[in-house]
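DM from R.C. (forwarded with permission)

"hey, sorry to bug you on a friday — could you get me a structure for this? deadline for the figure draft is monday and I only need the backbone to look sensible"
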Amino acid sequence: MRETQPQHDHQGDLETIDGIELLPSILEAVCRVTSSGFAAVARVTETRWIACATRDEIGFGLAAGGELPLETTICHEIRQHRQAVIIDDVAADPTYREHHTPRIYGLGSYISVPITLPDGTFFGTLCAIDPQPRSLANKEVTSAFAIFADLIAQHLMASRQVATIRAMAHERERLIAELQTARDNAVGELERVSVLFDHAPSFMAVLDGPEHRFVSANPAYRDLIGGREVIGRTVAEALPEAAEQGFVDILDKVYATGEPFSMRGARFTSRDENGEAAPERFLDFLYQPVAGNDGTNGIVVIGYDVTDHVLQTRRQAALTDLGEQLRVIDDRGDITHAAARIMAEALGATRAGFGTVDAEHETVIMHSNWCAAGATPVEGTYRFREYGSFIDDLKRGETVIVADVREDPRTRPNAAAMEALGIRVLLNFPVIEHDQFVLVAFVHMDTLRELSEADIQFVKQVADRTQLALAQLQAKEQQETLNRELGHRMKNALSVVQAIVSQTLRRAGDLKAGRSAIDARLAALGRAHDMLTEASWKEADIRQVVEAALAAHRRDGQRISIQGPAVPLNADQVQGISMALYELATNATKYGALSNEEGRVALDWSWIDGAFNLTWIESGGPAVKEPSDRGLGSRLIEQAIAPYFRGKGNMEFAPEGLRFRLSGYVIA
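My reply, with the result:
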């Protein structure tokens, strides 16, 4: 970019602009708030465009005093219509994509705001350009430009007024009147600037002297520091946590060197007016030194709270990380621990994890959870009501947020127990499956912190993805078990067929009678398998299930006695009972009471107030010896059925006959 620097009659404007101490900070803030690489204050007349001050981070090549041909700029159009021109993306803008100015100077984005003096005089423009598209047409940018343009206009106006007063010094009375007017105007304008300062979207403060004593701070700054009174106090006195976090050291360096300092996404933890730790914030800020006759005499603080953006970025990265890890983990404990760690680190929590819920008994089994340094894991079985009444909300599928266990009525009576576990803030997210509360995702914090809606949605996403991963793992394990069981059942089915054929032929009077009996018994076995398959997928009464499972083995209806009341079984319980009885009857046919002609089996059950008990007792068969190695069938009988009834199964190899007992619960 080439510039021309002719001698012109606007040297006074350049000197006036150069005298504005905050102008470098303004141009720095303009570049930061727009993400543009070039910013300038220009004097625009009917015939000339003159750069009064510039900030060039992209090598545009235009310095203070340089000029551009007026007809090549958009500013001369602004001089005519006195309106701001804002172009986010030149290539997409229907008005300016074919305009000669962006083409001449290679502009990707453009913003220019008129600088109009209080008396209505047009001075020029405050503008920013960049070769790349930028987001400019928003309240944050337009408000900042309005404030900065007004500050420059006020300074220019004040300078011109002072010049006028000095020029009329020989007219004493008029000079006094002019001075009075100027003073009144200055006070009014100062008040107006103060209003603009107070309503600025950014946080701002002015510090004086090497001790960094607060001269002013706008409401946004006071909100950032918890509403504390700071005017007249040093930063170290008013904000000791800022000193602890190194911000005073940075201020000292800026004051000593006279060099500005800026930072993006700086972590800052403040305190409220009661001294309680406030939620951590993330800030973009600038420390701009203010020069005096003897060097730096103060620092202006300007910045924006970018916490929401930083946390959203952190949450998104955490979900991506979780997805990558869940693809390769195949252990339940590892899945929940990885999800807990990612959830806790993203939220800055003390502890996070998952628990398996028994909604009926209102207990939760806490799995391995992630804890911050110094925190104690919370693992094992806990009763919800020993820590508050929020279990009622969880059962309804509602997310529970306790902002302070001391104040929330659901936890206040149990606050001491909660705090003993290091819990001051609590978030519980219920996972509902088939209308049942089965899993809870929890986040604990030992200090006060506000949880946003975005935080809650993040926990929900982690919980949903974790539940899906656990369900997929469970499905995989169930498929493997099913495959093993299928193989085992096929072998048993062949053994049962062999036993049926052998026993039938031994008792048959002739071949024709034997074949007929064999056909009937094999058909009964086939019907039993059909009913077992059907019963596995729906609720059924226990007698229906028992008769289906034992149909092939009850040849004369007398050797297996069945007794017990009607009991409604769910699908899992149907499958469990069917599996156990199938195995018991098969074993009895092969080795036990049904392997000879005299043996008997007594099957009975009871159901009282939800308590369920079932017994299978064999007698009259061959003498029983306990095997040295339990086979798959025995393990399935003892272990597979009991969990469906939240109880225990026990097989006893008594010499007079095998005995099996099941005790548990059936809830209608």
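R.C.: lifesaver. The chain is about 40% helix and 25% strand.
me: no worries. Confidence is low (pLDDT under 50) at residues 1-8.
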